[in-house]
Amino acid sequence: MNTVGIQRISLYTAPYYLDMDDFAAARGEDPEKFHVGLGQDDMSVLPPDEDIVTLAANAADPILREFDPKSITAVLFATESGIDQSKSAGAFVHGLLGLSNRCRVVELKHACYAGTAALQMAANMVRVNASEKVLVIASDVARYELGSPGEATQGCGAVAMLVTNQADILALETGTGYYTEDVMDFWRPNYRDTALVDGKYSTMVYLTALKHAWQSLIESRNLNYQDFARFCYHLPFGKMAVKAHGRLMKIAGLEANDDELTHVMGASLIYNRTVGNSYSASLYFGLTSLLETDTNNLANQRIGLFSYGSGCVGEFFTGIVGKDYQSHLYQASHHRLLASREKLSFSRYLSFYKQFGEVERSDNIELPVYTKGRFRLSAIRAHKRQYADQQRPR
Ligand code: COA
Fold first, then answer.
1. What is the pLDDT of residues 83-119, one digit of tens each?
2. What is the DSSP string of 64-100?
3. How sure is the predictor about 158, in pLDDT bands with cuts at 50, 70 and 90?
4. pTM of the predicted model over 0.90
5. What is the rounded CA–CA span in Å between residue 281 and residue 11?
6. Is pLDDT above 70 for 394?
7. Ligand 1 near 37 CB (within 6 A)
8. How many angstroms does the Cα of residue 37 sit away from the middle of ligand 1?
9. Which sequence spans correspond to the domains of the chain?
10. Do domains 5-171+330-389 and 174-321 have the same CATH topology?
11. What is the DSSP letter of 28?
12. What homologous superfamily does CATH list for 174-321?
C-alpha cells in the first residue's frame, strides 16, 4: 500500500482581515457581489512586519514542535510573491526554524501551481529514499491594484506540509493528469509589486486546463467520477471552484445540482471564504478546510485535487485520506487563528497596503510590531532582511 504523502498539514494567515461588507461600502458595490458572486466574506490582510517568510515560518512552527527540526532533510518553498531574485525564501525559514545544515532548500515558482509541483517532487524524493522528511511550504500574498477588479480577491496565507513515508493525513497516489499552455492570463513583471490579471480570460483558461487534466487523469488511471468521495480546487475565489466542479460534472455526463456540489466540495470552501486568495497555498487551504470541517469521517476515501497556475499549468491528482487522520489535524489551533484575527477599518487596510510597497522598496527601515505571529520581519538594513522570533528571550 502506498503510504507516501502528507503526514502533517499546518496553516497560517495574517492576524488582520477586511470584511467584504466594509470593502463593498468603500468601493460603492453591492456586498452580494462578493458574498454570492465571488464566494468571499473577508480577506486576510498582511501587516507591514509580515511577508512570505514569516507566513511560512509561522505555518511550519506547529509541525516542528511535534517533529525534531534536525530530522528535516529538505525544504521545498513554493511562492509567486518572492522577496528576492536570488536567495530562496526557504533559506530564511531554514534559519528561523533551526533546521539542520544537512538539509537542502530551494524555491519553486509557477504561479499558483508551484505548491503542487513541490508536493509531487517531495513525494518522489520519499519514494526514492524512504528516510527523507521533506517540508513543503506554499506561501503567498495576493495583491492587485487598488480599485481594480482583482482587489476583491486578495488575501494571504501559508501552508506547511510534512511529506514522508507515513501519510497520516493523505497518501498521494501515483499517476496524475496534467496540462500546460503558454498563455498570458495573470503575470507580475519584476518591476511591479502587484499582479496583472485578465480575470475573465483566466477563469476560461482555468476551465480549459481542468478539462484536459481531468481527461488525462481518468484515461491513464481508468477512474471515473464515482471513484471520488470529495474534490478540492485551486481557489482564486470560492465561486471559481463551484464553477469548476459544475463543469467537471458536465464533462462526466452528470447534471450539476446544489446538493451534490455542497456534499462533495462545500467544506473545502469554508476557510478560503474568510482568508481570500493565497495563490500557491489556496488549494491546500481547501484541503485542510475539507478535512477539518466536513461532518463525515473521510478515512480511507479518495479525494480529487485540481491545481491551477496561470500561465498556465493544471494538474489533477488524487490522494487517500489516512485511517486516523482526524487525530493528526491542527484543527483547534486553525480555528483559534481564524477567530482571533483583528478586523481592520477600510482606511487601516489602505495604510497596510501602502506600507507593503514602501517596505519592499526600502534598504533601511525598522518595523514596529503589528503581528501576533511568532516570527516577524523586524528591519531591513543594508538591503538585508532581518527577522525576529518573538518567543525567544532577548
Ligand atoms: N449579487 C450577486 N452576484 C453578483 C452581483 C450581485 N449584486 N453583482 C455581480 N454578481 C456576480 C456576477 O454575475 C459574476 O458572477 P458570474 O461570474 O457567475 O457571472 C460575479 O458576481 C463577479 O462579477 P463581475 O462583474 O464579473 O466581477 P468583476 O468584473 O469585478 O471581476 C473577477 C471578477 C473574478 C474577474 C475579478 O475579481 C478578477 O480578475 N479576479 C482575479 C482572478 C484571478 O485571480 N485569476 C487568476 C488565477 S485563477
1. 999 999 999 999 999 999 999 999 999 999 999 999 9
2. HHHS-GGG--EEEEE-SS-S-SSS-HHHHHHHHHT--
3. very high
4. yes
5. 9
6. no
7. yes
8. 6
9. 5-171+330-389, 174-321
10. yes
11. T
12. Thiolase/Chalcone synthase (3.40.47.10)
